[in-house]
Amino acid sequence: MGTAEISILKKEATNAEVKMNVESQFTKKRWILTLIGSLLYTADIVLDIYLGVKHINNGHINWGILTLAFVLCASVCTQIFSYMWFRDDDSGGGTIIGLHLIHMGIFTRYYKLLRKSFKLVWCKSITVGNDIWDHLKLFGQATDLSMLRLFEAFLESVPQLLLQLYIFLLGHGHNSVIHYLSMAASFLNVAWAVVDYRRCLRRSLPQLKEMPNGLPTIIYLLYKLFAITTRIFSLSLLLVLSPFSILYMALVWLLSTAWAFFQRTDFCTSKALEVLYRAIVGIILVFTFFNIQGQATRAPMTIYYIFYVFQSLSAPLLLCMWKPEVLRYEYGTGIISAGLCVGLGLLCVYYGLLHQGEEVKTEERVADEVDNMERQGPELVISPRMKRFLQI
Predict the structure, then answer these.
(1) pTM, to two decimals
(2) What is the DSSP letter of 324?
(3) What's the DSSP call for residue 210?
(4) CA 290: distance to chain centroid?
(5) How distant, in Å, are the alpha carbons of 64, 372, 391 from that of 55?
């Protein structure tokens, strides 16, 4: 090979490296979206706490306690995981413990991410070289935060939507502006958490292609929202039929948790925390399907959504038989049928036409890439938990 050919290959390699570095940057747009996410997270919690206190002041003690209990339970769980991840990363000092004890762990993560990324993307010019490792570290922090937000969304926002929709269906003049604002904030929080987590996850794992902007993201978001909201609406109808329907939900949660145990997840560094993780996985599976172990899921997903359709359509039928005055059968069936058709239709479109699958890499190739990354930037070590995150 001549000198000219070698020169051309070196130039192409340099251009490829520059392109990789540019694509790996934590951009100003990402910083702004992170700020918006923090504000939405705060608004959701504040509105739910205010609504819970309002329920209690209005004499609806049970509703108020449940509303506040969802906030507290979600906060406790996310604080536990947040602190343990700080400790796993050798960042769990006394101050970090104190902040998590007063339920400021998520806010601390937002502050750290926004502060570090602000210095990098707003106060420095874009450079190629060692800065790439700083950008990738920021994506790692964003992925951890998005995982915690996903937990919070399904432990707090989704149950809040279910409870407040149940109260709305009961009528009796219990609804107010703050009630609707709380439901809207919870809905937006779920939407934001699901899509942000998906994008952060795929961006942080080297063996996955990043979800592109535009149509695929919109289709994925709409699929998840229609599927989750249809599920919430059908479960709220069952609750209106009888508060004892909560026993049915508990049974579904137990079966979902058992499935997580059967899959033998290994996400956490301790057995006790793994049990908590599997219990949370069970709660999420009550409302939507996701891939626990990152393996082929066509058969489990098909079984899940067959059961999902059966339960969703049975709810308005049972309500019509026992409490027809609450909601006319054709309205309930129409709403749920429309949600099912749109949600499952978008699921087929996304996974059939738009899904960005895993990039084909052999184990040897991945190992070589990791070794090369460690040689270039020893401070960047892809966190093992990222590789075991939930695959939605």
Answers:
(1) 0.83
(2) T
(3) P
(4) 10
(5) 5, 57, 37
